[in-house]
Amino acid sequence: MMEDGRITIFDTTLRDGEQSPGCSMNQQEKLRLAQQLDRLGVDVIEAGFPIASDGDCEAVQEIATVIRRPIIAGLARACRTDIERAWEALKPAARPRIHVFLATSDIHLQYKLRMTREQCLAQARDAVRLAKSFCEDVEFSPEDATRTDVGFLCQVLEAVVEAGATTLNIPDTVGFTVPSEFAELITTIRKNVRGIENVTISAHCHNDLGLAVANALAAVGAGARQIECTINGIGERAGNASLEEIVMTMRVRPDRYPYETGIASQQLFPASQMLSEITGVPVQPNKAITGRNAFAHEAGIHQDGVLKNPLTYEIMTPISVGVPDSKLVLGKHSGRHALAMRCEQLGYQFDRRALDDVYRRFVHLADKIKHVEDHHLLELIRETHKPAASAAAAADALPAILASRRAERSPAFQVAVDTNPFGVPMPVASEHHHEQDDYLWGV
Ligand SMILES: [Mn+2]
Known about the structure:
By secondary structure, the protein is of the alpha/beta class. It has helices spanning 27-40, 54-66, 80-90, 106-113, 117-134, 150-162, 179-192, 212-221, 243-252, 268-279, 300-308, 336-345, 352-368, 374-385, 391-408, and strands at 8-11, 44-48, 71-77, 96-103, 138-143, 167-172, 200-205, 226-229, 416-419, 425-428. The chain has two domains: 8-279, Aldolase class I (TIM Barrel, Alpha-Beta Barrel), CATH 3.20.20; 330-407, no CATH class.
């Protein structure tokens, strides 16, 4: 399934991304971000890990009910309880996908799962069969694929294709591979797995060596047609491949990457801002595409060049990724349209009535201060959402709210492990921390 150059963008911000310390989201926050991912044009939203908690299950269910265009995926370990729970959450979706994973590397089999390769092969096949009995669209991930014996990996992949998997995701779970090796692995899989031509190959790369995006692009060059990625590259440890970097690399260098995605690139910056605002985790200033300095020119000689012609130092325009045009100053003469646009760029969409409300407050503020900056606007929006608080109180409370929120999501957590009836390790929720911070398994 790789004749064309259309790449499926599988966003896992709400699942793998959410597993990063400090990035857990509640149901309402997840829905809000899912709506932005829909506007962004992602093909698949991995909405969560339904067995992880009742909250996560409900969030997946709500997203599946409300968001109708993209495929909605839910993660499940390769066992009945997980798969049934995932299906329960995904049932309302217009286009549901069950994503089943099972580790295949010897080190995971031996120390984590305590099972033999034969048991692993049988469990993978049975799990995919069960998932298939509920749902036509089934993705399988051999966790830690890049450290799995390649012969065994191909054997497992062949078994799950036969059992009905429609997407084979190849996770570099620990961020260990390098581009040339990962491309070779994809090539080997395409050569050796019977039935592979009927399924989509996917790449899921982690950034422990800073190679996630490069590895994902190398996989695409070798025939993968789905990339799993996240907004701002959040995810376990050093994170996942960054969605915005992948999409813009393809867009800026079609000579080397002649592939298409369905992404509306002007929604990239708004998505990045919304995620950062929801989690309270800032984007690193020099982050490619969405960092505050990504389009800043400080050096005099650069500024001079950019003013004469932006192409001297810019390979893409800020506008193309939705970075607000800083020359567009918001003041009391600005209209509703300019205000709505800036709000959108900051990650907020309002209906008419809500916009009127924000606008009234905006004009009032603009009367007092000349230029309304983004941070003023953000405060104003928060205050509008909480009508009980006075303007001054809301502005004063904001830093305190953010600080307490960061403290509450401290990455210093511990995980207790138990084993479920399937012999699969289960996390035991610790009372001191947010329940989802403690749920650390995933591909
Ligand atoms: Mn992962």
